[in-house]
Amino acid sequence: MKFILLAVGTKMPAWITTGFTEYQKRMPPHMQLVLHELEPVRRVSKSTTDKAKELEGKAILEAIPKRAHVVALDEHGKELDSMQLASRVHYYQQLGSDVVIIIGGPEGLSAEVLQRADEKISLSRLTMPHPLVRVVIAEALYRAYSIDAGLPYHRA
Question: 137 — phi, psi (to 5°)?
């Protein structure tokens, strides 16, 4: 199985790429973490932000592989602790399909993307810059894997 991180945004700062890659490398071969970046739509005014969100939503929906389990990262999603995420990762392994985790653009995800999602998860009640979310979700997935596998990484 693969975790496919589908993220709106390109040209990340080097520290984001470094942080994401560190946890990506730690994932085991049977649970790869793959990043698929989507070009953001240019925003020039308030009137274009809604259109940008809609166009990014269409691009996201087109990029989702068939038969994938879709997880939308959304501020209104269910908050999980590390142990609960480990249980979800265990469940995902049993599904027999890839898991797509979606990070939207600055305005979030379109209604169509949220409707397509099989589940919605919130990483925190805090607002985070979208590039940072890549690093946070990569670390959280590695931590969840290590908990499920009984590795000593998580010390709670």
Answer: -70, -35
80 is annotated as contributing to ligand binding: no
pTM given for the model: 0.94
Q: How many whole angstroms separate alpha carbon 39 and alpha carbon 11?
A: 9
Residues 52-110 pLDDT 10s: 999 999 999 999 999 999 999 999 999 999 999 999 999 999 999 999 999 999 889 99
* DSSP H helices in 82-129: 82-95, 111-116
Is position 126 annotated in a ligand binding site?
yes
Instruction: Tell me if 122 is assigned to a ligand binding site.
Output: no
Whether 49 has a binding-site annotation, put simply, is no
Whether the Cβ atoms of residue 23 and residue 141 lie closer than 8 Å to each other: yes
